[in-house]
Specification:
There is one protein chain. By secondary structure, this protein is an alpha+beta fold. It has a single domain, classed as Gcn5-related N-acetyltransferase (GNAT) (Aminopeptidase, 3-Layer(aba) Sandwich), CATH 3.40.630.30. About 35% of the residues lie in helices and about 40% in strands. The chain contains five helices and seven strands. The chain has a seven-stranded mixed beta sheet, sandwiched between helices. The termini are far apart.
Length: about 150
């Protein structure tokens, strides 16, 4: 598979929305999906393209001069475990290093939530170098404990 990652780009909701819609196990809540779609228009987004089609994306938010966050990331199911997510994270990290950003964080459901899809999500982030930092029950709600993961980039 020949994969190309482009970005950072703004205004990518048309490319990213179909990917979000193809991932209902992660983005099934309509209000959240709409918020993510809006963010792909407003924030720096990287897109993964193969055979002329966008198959994945990653959107960043810069919180400070030294810290950024992966706000949302999605890869079409057919392309899971084929290096697309890793390529997106690597490209985003290269970009952030060039801007002097030291830390990259991501938030996901903690292991206290039994969802097997999010177990795969946590395993992915660990495989690309993120470590668990802290769990919060106040960010989303007590039934959806949030795990903050972080990676040192420099």
């Amino acid at each position: 598979m020949k994969l190309r990652v482009e970005g950072p780009l703004i205004g990518q909701s048309r490319a990213c929305e179909p990917i979000l819609r193809a991932l209902p196990n992660w983005f099934g809540l309509e209000a959240s999906a709409q918020a993510y779609i809006t963010q792909t228009d407003l924030l720096p987004t990287f897109i993964a393209i193969t055979d002329g089609s966008t198959v994945g994306f990653l959107t960043l938010k810069q919180h400070s001069g030294t810290a950024a966050e992966i706000v949302v990331m999605g890869v079409l199911p057919h392309y899971h475990r084929r290096g697309v997510g890793r390529a997106l994270v690597e490209r985003a990290e290269d970009y952030l290093r060039r801007t002097g950003t030291s830390f990259l964080q991501v938030k996901t459901l903690s292991e206290r939530h039994p969802d097997p899809n999010y177990a795969r999500t946590r395993a992915f982030y660990k495989a690309v170098g993120f470590v668990e930092l802290e769990e919060f029950t106040e960010i989303w709600d007590t039934d959806s404990p949030c795990l903050q993961m972080i990676k040192y980039l420099l």
